[in-house]
Structure formats: structure tokens, C-alpha cells
Give the backbone structure.
Amino acid sequence: MAVVQFINGLFEANHPLDSVVEYPNTENVSRKLRKLLSDAERSVKTGLMSEADGRAVVEYTEKLYRELYQGYDELKEADVMLKDWILTYSEEAELKGREEGRKEGMEKGIEKGREEVARSMLARGMALPDIAEIAGLSLDKIQALSQG
């Protein structure tokens, strides 16, 4: 019972030892864990707590400490991985967008150039099939250009 009281005192609440405890501030909890160990040691020395209870307090405190920092480290690692992924993804998306924009711009430019060549050939009175072949455009496109 003394062990449960010590552990619950750490969190200033009643938490069953097997329940998940949310740690609001790792520095604050770490300081409380160190104080808990110190208080338990003092209580054993003064006879307020048995040696078995003192060992149990140390065992549970060390377990809490490990779980606290394991969870904290896992969160930090996940946070770093997420930030890296977001940066990588956004950089890749930006590069892909730029490349697609460049490619689309070039395709439009090439298409405009072919249309200009076709218009020049139309102005010189060349045959539509010849213009289509030389300009690399469909015969339908050449006919549309000749009418518009």
C-alpha cells in the first residue's frame, strides 16, 4: 500500500499502476521521480517503510522512468521522422510540379511553333497534306488553321 501511495503521490492523483499515465512534462516528472527515490530511501532508513517496500518503490520508479523516456524518445523519433517525411514529400512535390510545368510549357511552345510554321505554309499556298507532314500536325488541325 505504501508503494501505491508513493507512486500516486508522484502524479498527484490516483492512478492504478497498470494504467496508462500521460506525462505532461518530462522534466517535472523526472524531478518528482528523483524526489520519490530520495524520500523512499529516507523512509527506509528511518523505519517508516520496510526494505521490501523501499525496493518496490525503487523498482516501480525505475520502471516509470524507463517508460517515460522510452515513450518520450519514441515520440521525438516519430516527430523527427514525420518532419523529414513532410519536408521530403513537399520538396519532391515541388520538384515534380516544376518539372511538369516545364514539360507542359515546352509542349505548348512546340505546338505553337508548329502551328506558326503551318500558318506560314498555308500563307504560301502549300498543299494541306504536305503542311501536315512537314509541321507534324494532323490534317484536321491544318484544316482548322486554314479556316481560322
